[in-house]
Each structure stands twice: as C-alpha cells, then as structure tokens.
Amino acid sequence: MHMSWPHHSFSRRRALAAATGFAAGAVLPLADAFSAAAAPARGPAPAAGAYTNPVIWQDFADIDVIRVADTYYASASTMHYSPGAPVLRSYDLVHWEIAGHSVPVLDFGAKYDLNGARGYVRGIWASSLAYRPSNRTFYWLGQIDFARTYIYTATAVEGPWNRLTTIGTPYYDAGLLVDSDDTLYVAYGNTTINVAQLSPDGRTQVRTQQVFTAPSSVGTLEGSRFYKINGQYYIFVTRPANGQYILKSSGGPFGPYTMRQVLLDLRGPIPGGGVPHQGGLVQTQSGAWYYLAFVDAYPGGRMPALAPVTWTPDGWPVVQLVNGAWGTSYPSPAVPPPPRQVTPMTGVDTFDGTSLKPRWEWNHNPDNSKWSVDNGLTLRTATVTNDLYWARNTLTHRIQGPTSTATVELDHSAMRDGDRAGLALLRDSSAWIGLERDGGATRVVMVGGLTMDGNWNTTGTGRELAGAAIQGSRIWLRASADIRPGAARPGTFSYSTDGTTFTRLGPDFSMGNDWRFFMGYRFALFNHATQALGGSVRVTRFELSTP
Fold this sequence. Notes:
Blueprint: H1 5-19, E1 50-52, E2 61-68, E3 71-77, E4 81-82, E5 84-90, E6 96-103, E7 128-132, E8 137-144, E9 148-154, E10 162-167, E11 175-178, E12 184-188, E13 192-198, E14 205-213, E15 222-229, E16 232-239, E17 243-249, E18 258-264, E19 277-283, E20 289-297, E21 301-311, E22 317-319, E23 329-331, E24 347-349, E25 360-363, E26 371-373, E27 377-380, E28 395-398, E29 403-411, E30 419-426, E31 429-438, E32 441-452, E33 458-469, E34 474-482, E35 489-496, E36 503-504, E37 509-511, E38 522-529, E39 536-545
Antiparallel strand pairs: 1-23, 2-3, 3-5, 4-25, 5-6, 7-8, 8-9, 9-10, 11-12, 12-13, 13-14, 15-16, 16-17, 17-18, 19-20, 20-21, 21-22, 24-39, 25-28, 26-27, 27-39, 28-38, 29-34, 29-39, 30-31, 30-38, 31-32, 32-33, 34-35, 35-36, 35-37
C-alpha cells in the first residue's frame, strides 16, 4: 500500500527495537516450523566440505535470490548509492561476486543528483529480481519514493539494463513471480499484502487485490518474495527485524492464504548481530532448498547468511538449525563444479581499462564529466562545498568484515587551493584522512565530526583532529575498520609517503552502530573544492585487505 515515510520509519523503528531486546512480540498459535525439525547439532568449526556464515561479510540487504540453470543470482538494496540494485552471481550459493547493477542511474529526481536536495536513505529499497525463460530475460522491479514502480530488463546481468516501464502503483517491498504459464505476478505491501497481475509484456498492471492482512499479534509484515512450488503459491514475508513468516495458497495467486511462522527471535550466526530474516528461498539443481537471509550487523550493515531448508509433508518450509540457532557452519551445497572461480570482493584494483568495476558505487549519481578511468581513476572536483555530504563524485566501496583495511595510492599534484581529497569512513557519522591544499601548501589531515541528524541533514561538517605538512606529489592513505556488531567500533587512519612505512594520524574514530541509516559504513574516495572547481587527483591503486 502507499505509505507515508513517517509511517514506514515508525514501523521499522518499533520492530527493530523489538528485535534488539527492548520488546517481545506475540505470535499466532501456529506450529513453530523449526521446533520439531531442527537439524542435528554440529560443531562450530567448519569441516571440509562446509561453509561458514555470513557467506558474504559485506553489506547486501533485502536479498532476492534466484537460480538460472547452474548459476545463482541475488539482488540487494542500495538506497542512495548509484548505480543501484547490484546483481551478485554465484555457482554454489557460498562464494559470490558482483556482476553488475540493475539500475544504471537513479534518475528519479534532482535529489539523487545532490542538486538542491539529497536522497539519503531513499532510492533502492527492497526490490525483486526474476528471470523469464520465455524471452530469456532478467527483470528487476522496485518502487521509488512511494510514488511509482520501475521495471528494468536485461538479457545478461552484466547489462545493459534498460527501463521497460513505469507503473503508477508503488509496489512496496515487492516480490516478482514468473508463473509456470509465463504470467507475471507481484506480491507487495506492508502489513496489508497485495498481489498484482501484470500484462503479458510486463508493462502495465492488469489487476491488483488485497490477499492478506497481518494479525495484530504479529504486527508489521513486509519484504515479500513470491513463489510457486509444487503447485502452491507462497509469499515469504518478514517481520522486521526479528521474524519470518510464510503465506500459502492452494487456490491460486490471489489466495486465500494461510500463514505460518518460520522463525522468531532466532539466534543468528554473527556474535552481537541480529536475527536472520528477510531474503529469499532458492532450490539447487539437485532439489535441495536454501534460505539466504541477512543479519543486522552494524556498523557494517546487513550481512547475508545461508541455511538449508526442508519441507513438511503438508508443504511448509523448515529452517535447519544448529544447537537451536542459525548455524555458523553447514555442509556445503551439493552443486556441480563451478565453471570458474568468482571474482573476489577484496583485493587490489588498479583501475585498469576504461570503466569502473562493479564493486564500486557512487554516493548519489555522479557528474560524469568530472571523472574518468584510464588505467587509473581521475576525480576532478565536481562541487564547491565544505560539506562532504553535499559533495558529488564520492566513490564508495563496501567494507569487508569483521575487520579490513583500505589503502589508496593517490597523486595530488593537480590539486588547487581549497581542494579536499582523501579516504573516508562514510555514513551518517563520518571521518576521513586526506589532503588539504591551501595557500599553495599541502597538508595531510585527519578530520572527524562529520554528522547528520535523523532527517539526514548535516549537523557537522568536520574538524581537523590531527595534521602534518607533506612534500612531493604522491601519498598513500589508509583506513582500517572494525565492523563487528554489538557496539561502536574503532576506525583508524594512517598515511605513508613511500608506500611502505605508515604513520598513524589522529585518534580512533568511533563507528556508530545505530541501524536507522540502514546502509553500513563504507570506504569512500572523494575530491571536492571549497573555493573553485578545476583541481583533480588521480587514484592509481586501491587495495582492500583483511588480516
């Protein structure tokens, strides 16, 4: 349904508070789907042929997961980052790479360009990824700003992705189903769950109908995923952020539906993290089922975790547990050998070629006239501001958990007076290490105190906490981040003038673990002007490493 932003914020805040132990929600007197069918206890250490959770220790939330032949794909939320809706690829459900993005540019209004307004915590929310065998096409579907729904299509996940249509009904937290007769259906809504049928070409809505309302004893339900399994229709819904439920219909996509609890307040696999929830179900080539959920694990974000699923004789899913919890380790899925190894999400990027690799996303849409890749990344100043949150062309990279370090090699010879360039730990409370060029002299500084309020307005533009004069035209900047959840964690900064010996600069930066920004901390490369445009920096190497 069309909800206001305050309504949504309130429901998320209330539910997430409950998930962190401040309140406990009542449940319907339905059979606990895992109480009688938990997996045998397994030891915490992964054995040969086992995997560990989280399967991706990077921020990929609101996952939709599908299989096409021998390949698995997943999509995730990216809010205000551009390009949006990354598509991940795997051959075994455990090892993943970023293959592309379904939404090439967030052309949904000036706020996504940092043009007079800002799109923080808007944009790409929970959306859906599907594959239509009849035309061998991938479909991405999502609503923007509670105003309308967009559908993009591509014949390969790497792209190009093109907008197929815009639909006036905002399909909130939608799941797209390609039925066995090729009809397209969408399940969507918050607490009131609806099903829409699309036209055969997927461009228009044929009908929409309310099919279920969550009982008050359960409260908020959202995050729909839509399936047809053994002739039955299922809508997989989450109670944010501590429960998962499933609706089942034997009478067709429009119901009637009955509900069963899948999990509630289940201990997750990340110490200090939340309850695995949302995400989606997927079946392997051999017929086994898995649930790819995410775990709230701030300050890093929401991390994907995988668990096997079995089914009761009457057709309800059962998450397999380890010692009464979502396992930190399970036997690896039985799948064919992969055709190749996936591209790691960590390691070195020298910005070879002429385009960015899909691991990168901009903070809002970039000004494409102010950056280039040509065996190195050039960032020309695109904004005159003293506020990093307003600066265009800030390029972000997810942090690898539980701890990781980003090191960037930067040529600053073309900076101009008033320019600020560097490497940030970016969120609603931020800090950075970088360069200030003033009066023809260059200093390396550590800056803290960049803050936003709960409406994502800037409340602090930062203050220098440490600095030193430097010579030459090249510098190596380093940021290390501890994103283990459960408490505020330290970020630290250092620099080098030779690429070998690094000097710590400034105090620890406390990385906040509040959930309300939704996205986790990211490493961010930036270059903006405070006086006039015209300066630039060149990034020749970026390395993301773990201990």
